[in-house]
């Protein structure tokens, strides 16, 4: 049998780079191995520019604007040829960050109009590999979240919110513990989920992305040994916050502590779990007939049963959310721990960040397509409400309690009397109205409950949807 590993072009091992590539492709610019190397080049270029602009090393000239533009263009033009060249250098160095240093020194020889050799010594000056890696990962994750994941997640949340607004008035028989319960509206139930997602998005949008630039054990040891008169903390802070746009972490070991990553991944995982809840609820509503799935989209629901339109978008979303959360959870728990000043568990772990976000992004795509294919069926919701008049036992006994507390006679044991009427059996509207008329309620209260139906007993549900539009 022919080995598929030898087929050209190469066959992807994982689904994200195979079957689902189109849905997750935007993350390649941020969370791939090539993106990591491009950010490393970016950090090294900006560190060289920062050191020369600040005159940190006496006697070393500043770069001209043309030289800076040319160096930054190396980052902009980073592509297949540069990836291949870096790979070739790394095969010699057997060190990925050192390969980036040598790669840039080659470029500087062609860019610098003078003193190329001296300037080249400031590439990676005072740095440990983790100085470059931690800032690169921070920039990568920041870009992936702010430019790709967050816009998609926000659009999905707005899709849910729009559906909630559209269905705000549509009565729905609620189910608690799987049993018929106090009616609500479909819009209010979707608004609950949209509101939960919205809160997590605000947390994720406010996330800090930390970086450090302080040497092999976070002491600026090499820096101060070489140039003791320089305020290296100020240089580091200015670079991390000014040049890179990250939040400076002043106190670390060899590694930036990754706590911000754990915070972010926990929030994204929580968003995923709420979205998973939405998928299972919508799946249930579809199974109850409360939503119909739009037909005529060219999809095959079942290979053998022509009548079926399966809720596959929501099921696929559930699976991808679970894979994403498994990775996000292990990232969050593992990255916060490092043996003493440094170990490499984080290095291998962080290479899975793209996969974690990829499965979440794929789930967003699945859920969005699923929601776009839904049509509400108010008649099905109304039929279930009309078959469950017993849910009006709650408001009637509550009114009797209030009247009893006010001293109205004949209102004793309201819960027990309604329990006897409704527990374990179905009643009709006529049954309930006859019961109400025999309770001895004040006339205006009796009139209200005689007119009440399961469809009208939704409390403030429609108005509660308005909370989605409040800051």
Quick summary:
With 471 residues, the chain is mainly alpha-helical. It has helices at residues 21-24, 28-31, 33-53, 65-76, 80-93, 96-111, 116-120, 129-166, 186-205, 221-226, 232-243, 259-288, 312-335, 345-350, 353-372, 378-386, 393-405, 414-422, 429-437, 443-451, 461-464, and strands at 171-176, 179-185, 210-211, 247-248, 291-293, 374-376.
Characterise the protein shown here:
This protein is mainly alpha-helical and 471 residues long. It has 3 domains: 16-127, Orthogonal Bundle (Fumarase C, Chain B, domain 1), CATH 1.10.275.10; 130-378, Fumarase C, Chain A, domain 2 (Up-down Bundle), CATH 1.20.200; 389-453, Fumarase/aspartase (C-terminal domain) (Ribonucleotide Reductase Protein R1, domain 1, Orthogonal Bundle), CATH 1.10.40.30. The chain has 21 helices and 6 strands. A two-stranded antiparallel ribbon has the order 1-2. A hairpin with a 2-residue loop joins strand 1 and strand 2 (179-185). The two termini are 62 Å apart. It catalyses: N(6)-(1,2-dicarboxyethyl)-AMP = fumarate + AMP; (2S)-2-[5-amino-1-(5-phospho-beta-D-ribosyl)imidazole-4-carboxamido]succinate = 5-amino-1-(5-phospho-beta-D-ribosyl)imidazole-4-carboxamide + fumarate. Residues 338-458 form the Adenylosuccinate lyase PurB C-terminal domain. Residues 18-317 form the Fumarate lyase N-terminal domain.
């Amino acid at each position: 049998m022919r080995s598929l590993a030898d087929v050209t072009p190469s066959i992807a091992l994982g689904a994200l780079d195979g079957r689902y590539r189109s849905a997750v492709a935007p993350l390649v610019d941020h969370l791939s191995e090539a993106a990591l190397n491009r950010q490393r080049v970016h950090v090294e270029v900006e560190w060289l520019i920062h050191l020369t602009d600040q005159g940190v090393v006496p006697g070393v000239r500043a770069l001209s604007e043309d030289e800076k533009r040319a160096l930054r263009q190396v980052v902009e033009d980073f592509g297949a040829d540069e990836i291949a060249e870096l790979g070739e250098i790394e095969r010699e160095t057997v060190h990925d960050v050192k390969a980036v240093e040598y790669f840039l020194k080659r470029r500087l020889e062609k860019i610098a109009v003078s003193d190329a050799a001296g300037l080249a010594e400031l590439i990676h000056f005072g740095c440990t590999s983790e100085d470059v890696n931690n800032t690169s990962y921070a920039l990568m994750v920041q870009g992936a979240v702010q430019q790709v994941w967050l816009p998609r997640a926000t659009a999905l949340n707005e899709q849910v919110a729009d559906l909630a607004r559209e269905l705000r008035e549509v009565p729905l028989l609620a189910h608690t513990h799987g049993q018929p319960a106090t009616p609500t509206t479909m819009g209010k139930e979707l608004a609950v989920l949209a509101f939960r997602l919205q809160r997590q998005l605000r947390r994720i949008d406010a996330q800090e992305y930390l970086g450090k630039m302080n040497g092999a054990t976070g002491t600026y040891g090499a820096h101060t040994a070489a140039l003791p008169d320089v305020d290296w903390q100020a240089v580091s802070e200015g670079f991390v916050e000014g040049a890179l746009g990250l939040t400076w972490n002043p106190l670390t070991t060899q590694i930036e502590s990754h706590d911000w990553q754990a915070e972010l991944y926990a929030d994204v995982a929580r968003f995923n779990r709420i979205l998973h809840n939405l998928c299972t609820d919508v799946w249930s509503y579809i199974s109850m007939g409360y939503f119909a799935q739009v037909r005529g989209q060219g999809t095959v629901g079942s290979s053998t049963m022509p009548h079926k339109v399966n809720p596959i978008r929501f099921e696929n979303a559930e699976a991808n959310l679970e894979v994403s959360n498994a990775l996000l959870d292990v990232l969050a728990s593992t990255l916060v721990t490092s043996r003493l000043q440094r170990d490499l568990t984080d290095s291998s772990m962080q290479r899975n960040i793209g996969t974690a976000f990829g499965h979440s992004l794929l789930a967003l795509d699945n859920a969005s397509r699923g929601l776009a294919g839904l049509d509400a069926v108010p008649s099905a919701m109304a039929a279930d409400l009309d078959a469950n008049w017993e849910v009006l036992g709650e408001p009637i006994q509550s009114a009797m309690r209030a009247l009893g507390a006010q001293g109205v006679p004949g209102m004793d044991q309201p819960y027990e009397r309604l329990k006897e009427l409704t527990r374990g059996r179905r009643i009709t509207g006529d049954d309930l109205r006859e019961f109400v008329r025999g309770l001895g309620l004040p006339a205006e209260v009796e009139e209200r409950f005689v007119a009440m139906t399961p469809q009208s007993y939704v409390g403030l549900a429609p108005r509660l949807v308005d909370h989605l539009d409040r800051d």
